[in-house]
Design a protein that fits this description.
The complex is a heterodimer of chains A (about 1500) and B (about 500). Chain A has 46 helices and 51 strands. With about 1500 residues, chain A is an alpha/beta fold. Chain A has a 10-stranded mixed β-sheet with strand order 42-43-44-45-46-47-48-49-51-50, sandwiched between helices. Chain A has an 8-stranded parallel β-sheet with strand order 31-30-40-39-37-36-33-32. In chain A, strand 42, helix 42 and strand 43 form a beta-alpha-beta unit. Chain B has about 500 residues and is α/β, with parallel strands linked by helices. Chain B is built from 19 helices and 18 strands. In chain B, strand 13 and strand 14 form a beta hairpin. The chains are: A alpha/beta (about 1500), B alpha/beta (about 500). At the A-B interface, helix 25 of A face helix 4 of B.
């Protein structure tokens, strides 16, 4: 693995993959299974990735039954009966001396456990097939054979001994200082199975492990896996499968899980292991992947005697909390286990096996695809995709899929599939969980309270507000709206205030932490529309031994929303009637007047008090900062919370208590998120309680009583925390607690290591002393005897004089506007000096730099500005977020100078694709594809020079957006292919990108839709963005954009605007370093944006590694924007961010203004280039040695900052390039569409009806996209006349079948299809039917995968079977008929028609604002599966509806010969009443309004 | 905050005036306040900008959106608190400030700006009426003493701030009553003098000592002061008047505007008789100088019952609207028509006075002018050229010279041994307001040259912070930042 260097931290590597298994239900062993399994891998190869050497895969492997017969033949020693011995491949050091040491240690431990080494066998391998990178890490592979101590030893006991020996050997060897100790690794050590894996491409597994070629090798089952890792130096041991599981996805909660595991081990005890247990822990070996870690925990839990399915239920529980349909016994099982184990949460399809069972579980939200097929001859094949093993249609018994939170299990010994319900009920019935819970688990609401009014005993609120740094903004912008409305406050535009460490105002310690969010490697979640998978309850009290399963574990206090009121806290504090709970309060105050260092001493005292309290039996500790006065200042609650949390870990006492924080500090969501993230189990923001009470008294809050207002506030915070968790893809607070998903910016390593261990901090900064100074500054101000302590305004969210500084302020805005309007260079210079000179007013990290190593040349030698501006782009702002005038102004300006404007996520009117008579062109060169997919059609994509996939947005990474109905006027609705007045939601995730291999797929899809366009992937700066960028480069993006956290937005929760994401300086530098390190930099273009304002900004971005540059706020300001920050209110007084026709008239911007701005920036850049000696931008990219820290800057906080990690230049071989020199190979030449295009010439060019017949397999992806691109080029959005090109395919179609396929194309698949069917469908007709020779009952079988018709705008789809999750997600115009669907159907749908002739999963219609669905509700279960009150669910009554429904079913029958359709049509009058029509209320209102408007115009 | 759509719903509305006919009958203020509901609407027009440019337009950095919002909500007391947090004397600025904030108002880009100044005035007047403005003496006194020399707006502001910090402050005023130019330069019809008195009474109750008729450097030795006090703040103003060096300037009937206004103010105050003032009654009055002082002379002359009032300005006539080279949000030089102008005057621009002509008794009877032309060349100071053949003679009995001030008097500089700059201001920078002599500070016009009241208050406040720092090592007194909009 690469070492930490510069900004690169190896722990931020991610992986995702393809996985699958095959097994024989009949228990028949065969050699064929191995070959079929390997075939699965080869067919999934597009889901993996290859390193820069072009050969080394990210790792692949296969798990099979122990081939006893084979070993009998090939072992030179005697083997006992199968099952009486264990075997494993063993990875060993390459050096013989070290190898023999490892062997010796291992053998010793085996013998200590009373087991016997039968012998060792050299494994024949062929290293020739390895790539360069794999070769350098290739271990020496041997096999070890171990027998039981005696034949009577039970299998369980044998396993325990094997586990103990292996674990202790691992700890001994890894603890040694051997240079090759890390080579030692046992992929498995089992009596049942053996694993062959390595840094291999799938097709090389059996070429490397020569045993696998041997026909004597046989097995009943085979589990295979291949990895797509973001890094390029993966290691052999991290290839999968692991010992019990393999994993496709990502465990987002890993850090919390790991630290909770460590604390569990404080009290771990086991009879089976006895004293050995102490040598086995820590269970988790640090520095391994999430999947490897999960496997280690699975293994430990198996040793407790739990079965493998039970362990999987415990670790990856389904979403039980809000499921009314779940049986009580199962719920009790889950609730009980939630007291012992938090969910390991994240997108995860986890195939598992112990040789007796083979199966798989899917995460609670169903974010990974898992399809299976049972054949008539008794084989079960499960994999990420269908069609990976050739099976004749007539051999198919059943096609199924793994459903969210569900388990698919094959009992190899019984030879049958056990369904989810059966296995789980059986496990849940094993213990009296419900009884235990009823007797022991206490709910907060059930604790009685003292009667009487709420009293606040402290005096002088104002003084305390000042002491805790409250501002009027906190009171009015943050707290009041939350208490009044129960919602988080919204703001707009970007953040342009200094990061905390550069601010001159005392900052709360929270502001030094930035939230980490999901991008690419896992999806953020939508906790609003998919609320049923979320939960924020926590349980408080002592943890219990994980080896026990008894009533002790649930002696806990459960709090539904752990943001609690003073009232609630009093209840807990005074809860003395239950002996299971002992509550102790500890003060977080310290004496101020003894001088500095008092804080440090106080923190130590705090820990020792907590420790003593635990010794005295306290299992709930309240840390309180009440009673601040002139002599006592508060320890920052976060510091106290985190330190106590970690110190108790160190004292091995953490599991014995829970922490409650009673503090005046936390006020905004970010604060609470941090407190929970660093170990708190409940928080009472008592001063907020008082402030709200005050605001009610002052009538600032209206029509609410105190308790309701507090409840609102707590609810808003709860929702906000959920959103913060969702951003990183976590759905339960139980797994978020203690997970520390933050990066620290501006606190030095010493302080972080001590008080916030395991939190990354990369540029150093302040320490405890400066923190103390900031506390004292506030404290002094609060308790100044004369100057009445005034609460400051703040100025964080809106500029206020004398308050927090902003880059854009009256002076800079005035000078910029003046300069572009008068085209006066000297005025621009004044502007850029104001921005650039931060020697006295620190604002940004780049402000701390100065240029160095001058080597001046004449400015005439520098490439002209006209060349430079071609690298300039304007930001992605949709038409909708800004006005038509402002949007087109930017486009015209950028087209004039050969730069690029960006459509944003809002589609674009086709008429803009053509130049006007004056030669001006309103076409946006960059077309954005974001999660809402508004107006993303074949024609739209065809009109692009560059297609940008927005993964995240600087202002609100990990979050979606919403354009409220009233803003969607007719014009906007047209460009977005939606209905006027119907609100449009952009979900937090792209529902076709839950992992890196999905992104790779989307890149392939859009590249297919326009081969001439560059594909740009927009990321936001955060820790680990470098490795993500490497993954994205491997996923074949052409351009990677790194956005700063400070980019703008039309609307975002304030907490995201300020606290999520990092400055681009860190992101660009990290991306550059990582890409160069992996020799991937030459393949991609690196772009940077985020409050770029001047030529100096551009120069620094360039020196750090960027070669293209985006500007958004500044060109808007040049166009007249005055930073009102009311974009979300539609009241922009200068006509930019508004759709109000009166206000739009006030837009006075001209293309010249934007052109002038770009010119000025380019000129300033040229001056710097001349000074530094660069003739071209390419020469300048990544030349960080030309930057230095400006030594003139002296500031008590900033002086601790260390910029060297940013300025780190990776040492590489000379031929490794620092900038883009070549284009990506997208492998499009083998796209199936080229065959079609060749054969459909007459159809395309002459519009003659054409009929084709072709085979298809799962590796044929995005079929139809290239063809449609060609059609769009000729015919625009009109496409071809209906049914011009007709194609019949036989087989299993790959992902994204019919993506962006346009009008006039009709495609039929006889077989089945994978995920993303009809993605962005643009008018084509798609038919998926069961082949005639196949005997399955279509409506019972899965025939297409997840996320069908995502963002489809028009067309028809007929599906002769069931579809998976998220059917018709964000459909806005296509009509579809299907025979059953999974969860989250018609999510975010805004238009079109969905006809569902069968069962519907949970959460139907979440966020559905338009379109109509007709559902055949045979068993009256539909309504309870619907989401929300915003849907009208009625019988089909209107004649026109009846006609529409019938004709669609008729078409379905004609297209697919569906027996179900036939039955329905034959019994039409009897069936019709069973149909329900789903009409979103918003849509109904919009239709009424449109009807009314039409009448008025007539 | 505020009403999101207020600016779309309400038009600007200012307070109105009594008719000129009525108002020139006396020296009282003649504005007719808006009703409270109307004022709330005006407050609602404020857009709560992301960047309130008005803050930067206002030399005090008034928190304009914040008090506008409170007015919109009808929370006048809180509005008054916000207003007073940056401005010691909003009743002065609310009447007299030319309101650069309104020129910088974002709404002013394409609509009439928010009537900020009028809102300000109403807030403070409401506060006085309701009795919310009371003395708040410091709880703890330091052992430091400060002398403030001059009781104009700069001196009063510095005194109040320093007193708040707990220092013992004495203000020295050479005139009979405190107020400086506020009292003697501003006519009552613009600001009645009880407005000063009611504020000064608060200051006295807060513990500030006022010593009038003390002319430091004349009847009190500066060095004595220096030794008695821990710090001295000079706020004596820029009182040296500009003269007009042409023939006849010493004729009877040619007077400095300041003499004219001061006497009249003393008369209105009942300190002198009408006979002792420079009366314009029945006279043909020519006011030379087109600024605010000139305007005050016009208003006063009309109240005296002048026969005619004529006004000359040497600069060319400014445009009615905002000139292109002085875009929003900068302060524009545009034609200003004051209430005094409305009361009757003939205004002439590009007029240069060449000579005063007197009769045998040395009494002014006419003056001679010539039209001038301004030549602008890039990078050079504009050049003045007389238009040949444009000479003209004007009959007149009284000429009032309202030509501005050239700087500070030398007395204090000499006595304290202070450096002066080339414009004859006391030398001190806005970094710390300290002069070359430790412990001696300068603020207001005495330091920056003649300027606006709002600048005087601002400097007094800023200087107080630095004085406090000087005395105590650090200061909790508020300080505005340096984001004032520049002049273009």
């Amino acid at each position: 693995m690469l070492k930490k260097q510069g900004l690169y931290l190896p722990e931020f590597e991610h992986d995702n993959c393809g996985a699958g298994f095959i097994c024989s239900l009949t228990g028949k062993r065969s050699n064929d299974i191995i070959h079929k399994a390997l075939e699965i891998l080869v067919k999934l190869e597009h889901r993996g990735a290859v390193s820069s050497d072009g050969v080394t895969g990210d790792g692949a492997g296969i798990l099979i039954d122990i081939p006893h017969k084979f070993f009998k033949i090939f072992c030179e020693f005697e083997l006992p009966e199968a099952g009486d011995y264990a075997v494993s491949n063993v990875f060993l050091p390459r050096k013989e001396n070290q190898r023999s040491y490892c062997v010796e240690v291992f053998e010793t431990e085996i013998k200590k456990q009373g087991l016997q080494i039968l012998g060792w066998r050299d494994v024949p391998v062929n290293s020739e097939v390895l790539g360069q990178i794999a070769k350098t890490t290739e271990p020496y592979v041997k096999q070890v054979f171990i027998s039981k101590s005696d034949s009577k030893q039970s299998e369980f006991d044998f396993n325990i001994k094997l586990f103990a020996a292996r674990k202790i050997a691992e700890h001994t060897i890894y603890g040694s200082k051997l240079s090759e100790s890390k080579f030692f690794y046992l992929p498995s050590l089992s009596t049942k199975i053996i694993i062959f894996k390595g840094l291999l491409k799938p097709e090389h597994i059996n070429e490397y492990y020569l045993d696998l070629f041997n026909s004597a090798l046989d097995t009943r089952l085979a589990l295979v896996h291949q990895r797509f890792s973001t890094n390029t130096f993966p290691t052999w041991d991290l290839a999968q499968p692991f010992r019990y599981i393999c994993h496709n996805g990502e465990i987002n909660t890993l850090r919390g899980n790991v630290s909770r595991m460590f604390s569990r081990e404080e009290i771990i005890k086991s009879e089976a292991f006895g004293e050995d247990i102490k040598k086995i822990i820590p269970t988790i070996i640090k520095g391994k992947s999430d999947s490897a870690t999960l496997d280690m925990v699975v293994e430990l839990l198996l040793m407790t005697g739990r079965s493998l399915p039970e362990v999987m239920m415990m670790l990856v529980p389904e979403a039980w909390e809000k499921n009314p349909d779940m049986s009580d016994s199962k719920k009790a099982f889950y609730e009980y286990n939630s007291c012992q184990m938090e969910p390991w949460d994240g997108p995860a399809s986890i195939p598992f096996t112990d040789g007796n069972f083979i199966g798989a579980v899917l995460d609670r939200n169903g974010l990974r695809p898992s399809r299976y097929t049972v054949t008539k001859d008794g084989n079960v094949i499960m994999s990420s995709e269908t069609g990976v093993v050739d099976i004749k249609p007539e051999e198919v018994e059943f096609h199924g899929r793994l459903e969210p939170g569900k388990m698919f299990l094959v009992d190899m010994n019984e030879g049958r599939i056990i369904n989810d319900e059966e296995i789980k009920e059986k496990i849940a019935a094993k213990k009296p969980y419900r009884e235990w819970l009823d007797e022991n688990l206490v709910k907060l609401k059930d604790i009685s309270a003292k009667k009487g009014p709420i009293e606040h005993s402290e005096v002088d609120l104002k003084k305390r507000e000042v002491a805790f740094g409250y501002t009027k903004e906190d009171l009015n912008t943050i707290i009041r709206p939350m208490a009044q409305l129960g919602k988080e406050p919204i703001g707009s535009m970007g953040s342009d205030t200094p990061i905390a460490v550069l601010s001159e105002r005392p900052q709360l310690i929270y502001n030094y932490f930035k939230q980490i969010f999901a991008q690419v490697t896992n999806p953020p979640l939508d906790g609003i529309r998919e609320e049923l998978i979320t939960d924020i309850s926590l349980t408080l009290g002592s943890d219990t031994n994980i080896f026990d399963c008894n009533s002790e574990a649930c002696k806990k206090l459960k709090i539904q929303n752990p943001v609690i009121s003073k009232h609630d806290l009093d209840k807990i504090r005074n809860y003395d009637t239950n002996p299971n709970f002992k509550v102790e309060s500890i003060s977080m105050l310290y004496k101020v007047n003894r001088g500095l260092n008092e804080l440090e001493i106080a923190l130590e005292a705090l820990v020792s008090k907590a420790s003593k309290a635990i010794d005295a039996g306290a299992n709930i500790i309240i840390l309180s900062d009440r009673f601040v006065d002139e002599n006592h200042a508060p320890i920052p609650a976060l510091l106290a919370c985190s330190y106590v949390n970690h110190a108790l870990h160190k004292l091995n006492k953490r599991s014995r208590t829970s922490l409650i924080i009673e503090s005046a500090e936390p006020r905004e969501v970010h604060h609470f998120a941090l407190l929970f993230g660093y170990g708190a189990s409940a928080v009472n923001p008592y001063i907020v309680n008082e402030i709200v009470e005050n605001q009610i008294k002052e009538s600032e809050i209206s029509d609410l009583d105190y308790l309701t207002a507090i409840k609102n506030y707590n609810k808003a915070v709860g929702k906000g925390i959920l959103k913060v968790m969702n951003k990183i893809g976590i759905s339960t607070l139980n797994s978020y607690r203690g997970s520390q998903l933050f990066e620290c910016v501006g606190i030095n390593t010493n302080t972080v290591e001590k008080y916030f261990p395991n939190t990354p901090t990369r540029i150093q900064g302040i320490g405890l002393r400066e923190i103390e100074k900031e506390i004292l500054k506030r404290h002094k101000k609060a308790f100044n005897p004369n100057i009445e302590s005034e609460i400051e305004i703040g100025g964080e969210y809106r500029w206020r004089r004398g308050q927090e500084k902003h880059m854009f302020n009256p002076l800079t805005v005035a000078k910029l506007q003046e300069s572009v309007r008068t085209n006066k260079a000297s005025t621009f210079k004044e502007y850029s000096d104001l921005v650039n000179d931060q020697s006295t007013r620190l604002m940004t990290i780049r402000g701390l730099f100065e240029f160095d190593q001058f080597d001046p040349i004449s400015i005439d030698e520098v490439e002209p500005w006209t060349e430079i501006v071609k690298r300039f782009k304007t930001g992605a702002m949709s038409y909708g977020s800004i006005s038509k005038e402002a949007h087109e102004n930017l486009a015209v300006a950028m087209n004039r100078i050969g730069g690029k404007s960006n459509s944003g996520e809002g589609g674009e009117d086709e008429e803009r694709f053509y130049k006007n008579a004056q030669g001006d062109w309103r076409n946006s060169a960059i077309k954005q594809v974001a999660s809402g997919r508004f107006g993303v059609t074949s024609n739209y994509l065809t009109s692009a020079n560059e297609i940008q996939i927005k993964i995240a947005q600087g202002a609100k990474p990990g979050e979606g957006g919403q354009l409220p109905g009233p803003k969607v006027n007719a014009e906007i609705a047209k460009t977005r292919n939606s209905t006027p007045y119907v609100g449009l939601i952009s979900p937090p995730p792209h529902h076709d990108i839950y992992s890196i291999e999905d992104l790779s797929q989307l890149i392939y899809d859009v590249k297919s839709a326009n081969r001439a366009a560059r594909i740009n992937v927009k990321l936001v700066s955060e820790i680990g963005v470098g490795t993500v960028a490497a993954g994205v480069a491997k996923a074949k993006a052409d351009v990677i954009l790194i956005s700063g956290f400070d980019g703008g937005t039309g609307a975002s929760p304030l907490t995201s605007l300020k606290h999520c994401g990092l400055p681009w300086e860190l992101g660009v530098a990290e991306a550059q370093q990582t890409l160069v390190m992996n020799n991937l930099r030459n393949r991609i273009v690196l772009e940077c944006d985020g409050q770029l304002k001047t030529g100096r900004d551009v120069a620094i971005a360039c020196l750090l590694g960027a070669e293209e540059f985006g500007f958004a706020t500044a060109p808007l300001v040049a166009s007249g924007c005055i930073m009102m920050r009311v974009c979300h209110l539609n009241t922009c007084p200068v006509g930019i961010a508004t759709q109000n026709p009166e206000l739009r008239k006030k837009f006075k911007g001209k293309p010249e203004h934007v052109v002038n701005y770009m010119y000025f920036v380019a000129q300033e850049l040229r001056e710097i280039m001349a000074q530094l000696g660069f003739k071209t931008v390419n020469e300048m990219v990544g030349q960080v040695q030309k930057l230095n820290r400006n030594k003139a800057i002296e500031h008590y906080k900033a002086s601790g900052i260390d910029l060297t990690p940013i300025l780190h230049k990776v040492e590489v071989l000379e031929d490794v390039k620092l900038f883009n020199t070549e284009t990506q190979d997208h492998n499009l030449d083998v796209h199936l569409d080229f065959k079609i295009i060749k054969q459909a010439h007459q159809g395309i060019f002459r519009r003659q009806r054409t009929y084709l017949k072709l085979p298809i397999t799962n590796i044929d992806r995005a079929v139809g996209a290239v063809l449609s691109n060609e059609i769009s080029k000729i015919y625009g959005a009109d496409g071809l006349p209906e049914d011009t090109i007709n194609i019949d395919f036989n087989g299993s179609a790959g992902q994204s079948f019919g993506a962006f396929t346009t009008k006039g194309v009709s495609m039929t698949v006889h077989g089945n299809t994978n995920d993303y069917l009809g993605k962005g469908l643009s008018g084509a007709k798609l038919i998926i039917k069961v082949p005639e020779s196949c005997t399955i009952i279509p409506e019972d079988n899965i025939i297409t995968g997840n996320v069908t018709l995502y963002g489809a705008t028009s067309g028809e789809v007929y599906i002769n079977g069931k579809a998976g999750e998220r059917f018709c997600v964000r459909n806005s115009g296509a009509k579809a008929v299907v025979e059953g669907i999974g969860d989250h159907g018609c999510e975010y749908m805004t238009g079109g028609v969905a006809v569902i002739l069968g069962k519907v999963g949970r959460n139907f219609g979440a966020g559905m604002s338009g379109g109509v669905a007709y559902v055949l509700d045979e068993d009256q279960a539909f309504t309870k599966n619907c989401n929300g009150d915003d849907l009208n669910i009625d019988p089909v009554k209107l004649e026109e509806d009846k006609t529409q429904l019938r004709s669609l079913i008729e078409s379905h029958f004609v297209a697919t010969s569906s027996p179900l359709a036939k039955r329905i049509l034959e019994n039409w009058s009897a069936t019709l009443p069973k149909f329900k029509k789903v009409l979103p209320e918003e849509y109904r209102q919009a239709l009424l309004r449109l009807e009314k408007e039409q009448l008025e115009t007539v | 905050m505020g009403k999101t759509t207020g600016f779309l719903e309400f038009k600007r509305q200012d307070e109105t005036y009594q008719t000129p006919k009525d108002r020139i009958k006396n020296y009282e203020e003649f504005t007719i306040p808006l009703k409270e509901s109307k004022l709330k609407d005006q407050g609602a027009r404020c857009m709560d900008c992301g960047i309130p440019f008005c803050h930067s337009g206002c030399p005090l950095g008034n928190l304009i959106p914040d008090f506008n919002d409170k007015v919109y909500q009808g929370k006048w007391k809180e509005a008054a608190e916000i207003l007073h947090s940056t401005n010691n004397f909003p009743e002065f600025t609310g009447r007299l400030c030319p309101a650069p904030c309104e020129e910088a108002c974002v709404l002013g880009i394409n609509e009439d700006p928010v009537s900020i100044e009028n809102i300000e005035k109403n807030i403070v007047e409401t506060a006085f009426t309701e009795g919310w403005i009371i003395a708040k003496p410091p709880k703890v006194r330091t052992d430091k003493t400060v002398a403030v020399i001059g009781s104009g707006p700069a001196g009063l502001a510095a005194a109040q701030q320093l007193n708040r910090a707990g220092h013992t402050v004495t203000v020295f005023e050479r005139d009979k009553k405190v107020g400086g130019l506020l009292r003697y330069g501003i006519p009552d019809f613009k600001m009645e003098k009880n407005v000063i008195d009611r504020r000064v009474n608060v200051l006295i109750k807060e513990g500030i000592v006022f010593k009038t008729n003390v002319h430091v450097g004349k009847n009190v030795d500066a060095n004595q002061l220096k030794s008695e006090f821990d710090a001295v703040v000079l706020c004596g103003g820029a009182t040296v008047r500009r003269n007009i060096p042409i023939p006849g300037a010493d004729l009877k009937g040619v007077h400095q505007a300041m003499d004219f206004l001061k006497l009249n103010n003393q008369y209105v105050d009942g300190l002198v008789d009408f006979n002792d003032i420079l009366s314009a009654k029945d006279k043909n009055v020519i006011v030379i100088g087109g600024g605010d002082t000139g305007s005050d002379c016009i208003g006063t002359s009309n109240r005296h019952g002048a026969n005619s009032v004529t006004n000359f300005e040497i600069l060319s006539k400014p445009s009615e609207g905002r000139p292109a080279n002085q875009p929003w949000p900068y302060w524009p030089m545009k034609l200003k028509t004051t209430s005094s102008h409305q009361e009757g005057v003939e205004r002439f621009f590009s007029v240069s006075t060449k000579e005063f002509i007197g009769d045998a008794k040395g009494q002014l009877k006419a003056l001679k002018t010539v039209e001038v032309e301004w030549i602008f060349k890039k990078g050079e100071r504009p050049d003045l050229k007389e238009v040949p053949g444009s000479e003209k003679t004007w009959d007149c009995d009284l000429v009032l010279l309202a030509l501005g001030f050239t700087g500070a008097e030398k007395t204090l500089a000499d006595q304290f041994g202070l450096d002066m700059d080339f414009r004859t201001n006391i030398k001190a920078t806005t970094k710390d307001y300290i002069t070359n002599v430790p412990g001696i500070f300068a603020a207001g016009d005495i330091r920056r040259g003649q300027s606006l009241i709002v600048w005087a208050i601002s400097e007094g406040r800023q200087a107080a912070h630095h004085v406090d720092s000087y005395l105590m090592g650090s200061s909790s007194l508020p300080l505005k930042d340096d984001s004032d909009l520049p002049r273009v």
